[in-house]
Amino acid sequence: ARCLVENQLYLFTDHWAHLPVRWIPLGIVRFTVMTVCLRLLLVIAGLVAVAFASGNDAPSGKRVLALLDDLKIKWTHSLFFKSLEDRGYSVSYHAASDPAVRLKKYGEWNYDNLILFAPSSSDFAGVTAASIIEFIDSGHNVLVAGDSELGGPTRDIASECNIEFDEDSTQVIDHFNFDVSDFNGGHTVVVADRVLSVPAFFGGKKIDAPVLFKGIAQDIEEDSPLLYNVLAGSATAYSAFPEEAVPSDVFVAGSKIALVSALQARNNARVVVSGSLALFSDKFFTSSVQRYSADGSAQKFEKSGNEQFAKLITQWAFQERGILRVKSVSHHLVGQTEAPAYYTLQDEVEYTIEVEEWNGRRWVPFVTDDLQVEFRRIDPFVRITFPQGKDGNYSARFKIPDVNGVYTFKVEYVRPGYGFLTSIIRPIAVHPFRHNAYERFIPSAFPYYASSISMLAGIFVFSFVFLYHRD
């Protein structure tokens, strides 16, 4: 035991190395051993933390800033905010007029998501419309709720997303699809059930009951591949002033009315714009729904679909669903495992890619049957659809085309509701055959061989006749 202690002292106490072992205080020994053990524990803990973080790296964070017209909205919409907090979000509540709040500080974003429930605010103090657009451009997410009275900042943000609101004081009106509670009113409490049937937005789930809506209409650019009418008006809905006669040219009508719209940006930022702040209120969350009918035979739902709709659409908006990533990608010659420095014409190539999807808790394999790979220069020379992948792994084989040059492998997946997935492998050269790569005698060249031999024979005969023939 004494020999072991002396060895330890010799290894870890360089400062005392010139002294005899018996002169080193026992306290120094204990301190040195404890320091080494502590450092080892810190290293192990760091490695475990890094491994855990790399396996659970969510595409978006949980810090949410809620900008409100009035802090009372925190209580009138408490069920909505509680559902966010139950899902692990940390929500900071501020009035839109608060000059102290900042989205960005010292070049770092303070929040990952923004909820803008301040439709009537004509001016934001600490957070400007320009900073919100920059927030979106940097890949963050925004939920905007409007109302019949809209301030300039909300209109500006919507306009930047190619979304246009109707005039102030207008509302969506539907005399055939309104709730019975609004029978003596202006029929502005609309019963909406035209939900976009794209599984990626709502996780393949069906909204159990119609959604109550009371607010302003939106008109979106229909040709845009980035905008979606998530909750549309019915064929009999229109936008107008409730207390005035219906004009001949309304702003938007029918199914073109966007009650709730969504933007999937190319940088995977997401923006959801609702024309109704009341859609997220406790009142609409807990209200029963019954579409008006003359004979009263319309089905009555004890609870509206607002809470379910709000939960599902915010899951999509805050990137809890529909985000894809490439886990690994490789290419090589068939029968090999390493990527070569270059390919040669007509080589057999195998390309493999592994794709994952975020399901709100972890990354899981993404399975589809419409993923494609392109082998391209300026334009694709080869385009192949992968067979349906198993466990998110997709593999395809093809032959290099008969055109040399510099190529890239490109996988691009763009589908409604999913984030943009793009994988481009650095350019790789395709070389022509080397001079010694051809066969010694090519059958197709036999006529050329024959012509060369006949030319040599003709020259020999001509030379012989010219030299030795006399007239």
Average pLDDT figure: 87
Characterize the largest beta sheet: strand count, sense, and whether it forms a barrel. Answer: 8 strands, mixed
Uncertain segments of ≥5 residues (pLDDT<50)? 1-16, 48-55
Proportion in β-strands: 25-35%
**Residues in helices, as a percent range:** 10-25%
- Overall body shape: elongated
The DSSP helix count reads 10
Structural class, by secondary structure, is: alpha+beta
How many β-strands, per DSSP?
28
Intertermini distance: 122 Å
Name the strands of the widest sheet in spatial order.
2-1-5-6-16-15-13-10
Structural Rg: 35 Å
Offer a quick outline of the entry.
This protein has 471 residues and is of the alpha+beta class. It has helices spanning 2-12, 26-55, 73-76, 78-86, 129-137, 152-160, 199-202, 282-286, 306-317, 446-468, and strands at residues 63-68, 90-95, 104-105, 108-109, 113-117, 141-145, 163-165, 171-173, 190-192, 194-195, 211-213, 218-220, 227-232, 238-240, 258-264, 270-274, 289-290, 300-301, 323-333, 342-344, 348-358, 363-365, 372-376, 380-385, 393-399, 405-413, 421-424, 428-431.
